[in-house]
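Annotated sample (chain length 523).
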Amino acid sequence: MHLFLHYLFMKYLLGGIKITIYVTFLGLFGGAFFGIILAGLQHSRIRLLALLAKIYVGIFRGTPLILQMVFAYDALPYIGIMLPGIFAGGLALAANEAPFISELIRSALSSVGNGQVMAGETLGLTKLHRSVYIIWPQAFRAALPGIGNETISTLKNSALAMVIAVPELTLRSTQLASSTFDFFSIFFAAGVWYLVLTGAVSLAQEGFERILNHEGIKSNKKYRFMSYFSKNTWRKPEIADSDLKKVVNQVNMQILESRSNYADIRDKAPGNYIEIKNLHKAYGGNIAIANINLTLPTATTTVLLGSSGAGKSTLLRCIGLLELPDGGSMRIGTRTFSFDSSKRSFYDADKMAEERKAGGITVVFQNFNLFEHLTSTENVMLALTSSYKIPNKYARDVATEALNSVGLKSHANKLPKHLSGGQQQRVAIARALVIKPKVLLMDEPTSALDPESVNGVIDLVNVLKGNKDLSIIITTHQLKVASCLGDRIVFMNNGGIVESGTSDNILLNPKNPQTIRFIEAFQ
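Output written by the structure step:
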């Protein structure tokens, strides 16, 4: 009889545990839903919506949860909304958790550098692909400890639902203790069950952290999962998989053919692949570049030379369609752009992505902007699998070959943080070259490197100059880089072009006093 009573008591407590888990589930996922909406409202350009979101946060952060539960259960019926206790408790928990989850989401997303997002844009990744492959994997990993804490907090706070007669674990423990007068045993058992539940959450959090650990999951499994987000349009080549050269050629052909959706690859661009007229750009009234007129011959290397703040990087980003000029016009290959205030809405992010893809434009950034959660191979193959729909198996072969061509075959499975600056720069170059660009833009490619790595990058770019289909534009303030790599030099100062010409003419026989002073200062 005694064992039977214990069995009934335990069954009664287990029923309360189920309700506790259910209320926690409502509170946590409801909080996540409201939190996402709240995060968007707080950053809304509509001031009224942003103000309402701030008022909401102030109310639910500033009042006790127990009062919020009582309000949801007892006050809402006065306006015609009647909720069962379980749903009222879950709603109150969700409303209380929303501000905290909103901040968790915001901080996690902000932990992913804008440079990585920009790198994804230059590789042709759509907004969805950037979210799936770059932003959310890193943001979720950054948010995971906070998610675990909020889950445990919601689980414990669900006990407050007893005040609105929700028969969760704490209320049922209280009822049992009141009827048996065995307070210690029953509340001790309830405490053990709470520890079991919170312990399960902690173990789940630890398991997810191991799975999402950049160094703890094999890359092939990671990419197999990620590939489900991308539709495969590959036409399988009728060749042996072991013939790497044919695989590379087939991949290259598909990349070029995919651009025909935006521009006919049979169109012959003029001898000058890039032509710029009266281009200007300002930030908050401060002029970055002004009245830029420039013609860049196809298959040449042009160096934009000048000190910091001269406007070199701004001009490079405008050419790369990462910045929208305020006025002027630009032709890249067969594509012509006219910029003015009336056409700004025409050049949205998707339009720019199409134009970069059509023109074969890509960028190697000053800070490399490698995807920190992906290995060298995965960094290089991401554009192939997402933008150009190449299957992982073939993309990996091509990425391996690209890394081998820049001398990094032995570093293929390393994360960016395990590579030196020079090695990261080489991975960034391989990642840019694998999509067969027509224009390679390099922003201060040697500024963050030691002298030995500088020499390595110079040697690599000199090899790239042998590609007669590739035009290279480099920004730098280093005379060594300009003299070793530049076919043409464009000297800039205060947002304008001071002097331009062949490398020998500018560096050995400058005409403008500003150019002369700059060269003398760095010699």
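Annotation: Strands lie at 272-283, 286-297, 301-305, 327-332, 335-339, 361-364, 439-443, 471-476, 488-493, 496-502.
Annotation: Residues 217-241 have pLDDT under 50 and may be disordered.
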